[in-house]
């Protein structure tokens, strides 16, 4: 929340400076801007992607069969941006997030009359669980699945491959965000 507040205040100050430079702007517009900024901050506005984790998640062990995938890189980036210290060696104190399975695949969505694929659907599916450092389960195995569709053009195969790569990055980012939101939501409900 503090980072969001500082960001909003900084942006407001920059905008107010611009307003002051212009002789046509009145003091009422400055006051309106200030009031709107305070309302946005007061209502709990938060920059997208930032999480507020329970204290037990200040440190987190992350286990994955392949830590080099797009999804895993995005997950680690978002965890670090949220202030979580990650480790790959299990300790008895840090909770353990286990990515049990990660599967990226595509399926034909639309096929033309001459049996050519016109559109694909790209899927990213993960299975995960969370346990305490001692091994006691916090969240049992769960599955999350996201998809994105795209048009395939035989005449421009390189462009279609590039689009698939961009969608894979987008899916990885969206899945990491969804996973962190889901873990935060469910662990807040734990006793």
How would you describe this protein?
With 191 residues, the protein is an alpha/beta fold. 42% of the residues lie in helices and 28% in strands. The protein has helices spanning 2-21, 27-42, 70-81, 157-188; strands at 59-63, 85-87, 96-111, 117-131, 137-151. The protein has a 5-stranded mixed β-sheet with strand order 2-1-3-4-5, with helices on one face. Strand 3 (96-111) and strand 4 (117-131) form a beta hairpin.
Topology:
Elements: H1 2-21, H2 27-42, E1 59-63, H3 70-81, E2 85-87, E3 96-111, E4 117-131, E5 137-151, H4 157-188
Parallel strand pairs: 1-2, 1-3
Antiparallel strand pairs: 3-4, 4-5
Helix pairs in contact: 1-2, 3-4
Task: Sum this structure up briefly.
The chain is of the alpha/beta class.
């Amino acid at each position: 929340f503090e980072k969001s507040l500082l960001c909003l205040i900084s942006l407001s100050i920059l905008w107010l400076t611009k307003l002051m430079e212009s002789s046509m702007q009145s003091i009422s517009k400055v006051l309106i801007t200030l009031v709107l900024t305070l309302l946005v901050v007061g209502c709990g506005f938060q920059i997208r992607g930032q999480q507020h984790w329970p204290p037990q998640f200040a440190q987190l062990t992350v286990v994955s069969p392949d830590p080099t995938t797009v999804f895993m890189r995005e997950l680690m980036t978002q965890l670090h941006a949220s202030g979580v210290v990650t480790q790959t060696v299990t300790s008895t104190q840090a909770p353990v997030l286990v990515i049990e399975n990660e599967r990226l695949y595509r399926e034909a969505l639309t096929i033309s009359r001459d049996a050519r694929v016109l559109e694909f659907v790209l899927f990213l599916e993960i299975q995960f669980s969370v346990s305490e450092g001692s091994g006691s389960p916090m969240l049992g195995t769960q599955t999350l699945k996201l998809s994105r569709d795209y048009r395939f053009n035989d005449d421009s195969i390189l462009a279609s491959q590039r689009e698939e790569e961009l969608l894979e990055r987008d899916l990885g980012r969206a899945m990491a965000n969804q996973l962190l939101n889901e873990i935060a939501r469910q662990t807040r409900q734990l006793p």
